[in-house]
Amino acid sequence: MPRTKSKASSTSKKVAKKAEKIVNELKGTTPVVTSLPKGKLQVKLDKKKVVKVLLYTLLFVLSFALIDLFVQYLNNGYSVAVVNGQRVTKSEYYDRLSKGYGLQATSALIDETLIEQEGEAKDITVTQKDVDDRVKEISDQLGGDKVLEETLKANNITREDIERQIRLEIITTRILEPSLKYEDKDVEAFFNQYKSVLYQDEDVKFADKKVEVTNSFISQKVEEAKTAWLEGLRGKAKIQNNISTEPTYGAFKTITNIINNMLKEIKNK
User: Fold this and answer.
1) Of 37, 157, 186, 257, which shows the fewest CB atoms inside 10 Å?
2) What pLDDT, on the 0 to 100 scale, is given for residue 1?
3) Dihedral over Cα of 168, 171, 174, 175: its sign
4) What stretches of the chain adopt beta strand conformation (E)?
């Protein structure tokens, strides 16, 4: 009998050790199963691992949301409208625009570039004060800054747009004015012809407005001479209009243009 008890005790110890080993292996996993006095089972969750899973899930959802917003931003950046979920791309818009107004718009941009280049070639500098003074003249003629801003807004023109046009106007005038030939009698005739347009006061005298009238007369003459002058500039320039003709390509053309632009900047400095 004593031997039987000893064997039973030894077996019990082995079973206890195996049970302890199994319990130790299960520690650190998500569910840990322990026996209760009444034979029921209780599942304990590892709180740290649960928190990690929740955090990873939240990060995934946030990342997906941010990616979705970024894609929406890109789509909106490349479209001009969305019709029932279908996007009208900017490429379609620009294609339609180029067919309708492309030639006219491109020609205007080419002429503006030619004027700027000619101004640089003749060392003509237009200061911000020159521009501001001209803006003030226009503002006074319209009836004040508020009216000017409303006029620009109504015509979808920004302040930067009008300042650029003023710079081009000043450059053109400074280049062409020295070649104009006129006398005081020509200016006075201009005044008599356009007095009712320029001034509301019918009794205004030419002598009192001679400087203003002369400036208006010169502006008109410059505008008349501008067409032939620009034609001459176009005739001498190398112009590639990609709207009206197919683009041309050449070996090292881009590098050559970069070098030429760098040399031009160095020269201007």
Assistant:
1) 37
2) 46
3) negative
4) 31-35, 41-45, 79-83, 86-89
Cα–Cα distance, 13 to 7 (Å, whole number): 10
Question: CA 10: distance to chain centroid?
Answer: 85
239's tokens: 């112009």
Rounded Cα distance between 122 and 268, Å, is: 11
* The predicted structure's pLDDT at residue 183: 93
Question: CB under 8 Å to 130, separation ≥6 — which residues?
Answer: 170
Tell me how far apart the alpha carbons of residues 35 and 181 are, in angstroms, rounded to a whole number. 113
Residue 154 has, within 13 A of its CA and on its CB side, a CA count of 6
Cβ neighbors of 191 (< 8 A, separation 6 or more) are 198, 206, 209, 213, 217
Domain ranges of the chain: 1-45, 126-268
Rounded CA gap, 175 and 118, in Å? 9
Q: What is the mean pLDDT of residues 5-33?
A: 52
Residue type, 37: P
Range list of β-strands (E), 20-143: 31-35, 41-45, 79-83, 86-89
Q: Which residue has the higher pLDDT, 70 or 54?
A: 54
What digits encode the pLDDT tens for the residues 229-246?
999 999 998 887 776 776
Pick from 109, 171, 108, 105: which is nearest to 134 by CA?
Answer: 171
Beta carbons within 8 Å of 138's beta carbon, 6+ residues apart: 148, 162
Cβ atoms of 206 and 213 within 8 Å: the answer is yes
